[in-house]
Design goal:
This protein has 231 residues and is α/β, with parallel strands linked by helices. The chain has a single domain (7-224), classed as P-loop containing nucleotide triphosphate hydrolases (Rossmann fold, 3-Layer(aba) Sandwich). Helix content is 33%, strand content 17%. The chain has 9 helices and 8 strands. It has an 8-stranded mixed beta sheet, sandwiched between helices. Helix 1 packs across helix 2.
Length: 231
């Protein structure tokens, strides 16, 4: 199943849907995943492309924003960015400009019509994404954003495709792995999880995408627990 970015995939279109409720459940599980240290920065990644990670990131960000929290979603997929398509905004300036140029942060942080939610798109695609993502400037930028936002969600590249998400996982409080049911083998999912674990990522859980339900919703997202979750 290939995931096309359409507005109806955002839960703001129907707050009473089962899809919206599943994101609220995911949000709640994340909030209670660590009582000692609240999870404020979250990386959303997948095993392979087209598993729905960008849609998951966008809807989870909206779910947090609906609680009144100040939320920022950053498109950290500097190879195949999607958040500007999800929220139907332009992408001439974004994360790469903040990391590579002397651009004021507020210029790249955009309103997208959702209360309490702002977005930093990818900006121009660079020739060396891994080096840019792994720079000290990226860490400094996240630290700066933490002062202004309660929750920061990063839409990262697929884990098995490139090293970017492994790098980003060391900068965040927790990681959610999105797995498309019927499209990715258990072996591939376990390999992605192992790759994240090898860099000591705090894997909060796994979202299974594409599980068919008994209503007319296109997609279902289920959250499977904690750092002890097994695929």
């Amino acid at each position: 199943m290939k995931h096309k970015m359409k507005n109806h995939q955002l839960i703001t279109s129907d707050l009473s849907s089962r899809v919206a409720e599943s994101y609220r459940v995911l949000r709640t599980n994340i909030q209670f995943s660590s009582l000692d240290k609240p999870v404020k920065t979250i990386l959303i990644t997948s095993t392979a492309p087209a598993e729905g990670k960008s849609t998951t990131a966008a809807n989870l960000a909206i779910a947090f924003a609906q609680t009144g929290s100040k939320v920022l979603i950053i498109d950290g997929d500097l190879r195949r960015p999607s958040q500007h398509k999800v929220f139907k905004t332009s992408n001439p300036l974004g994360l790469t400009n903040l990391l590579m140029q002397n651009v004021a942060t507020q210029i790249a942080v955009r309103d997208v019509g959702v209360p309490n939610l702002k977005v930093v798109s990818s900006g121009p695609i660079p020739p060396n994404p891994s080096e840019i993502i792994g720079s000290g400037r990226m860490r400094d930028l996240l630290d700066s954003f933490k002062k202004d936002f309660d929750i920061i969600i990063i839409d990262g590249p697929p884990t098995l495709a490139v090293t970017d998400s492994a790098i980003l996982s060391s900068m965040v409080d927790g990681v959610i792995l999105v797995v498309a049911v019927g499209e990715v083998s258990k072996e591939m999912a376990n390999k992605a999880k192992a790759q994240l674990a090898s860099v000591k990522a705090n894997i909060l859980g796994v979202v299974l995408n594409g599980v068919e339900g008994d209503s007319q919703d296109d997609y279902y997202y289920y959250y499977y627990g904690s750092r002890r979750t097994k695929s």
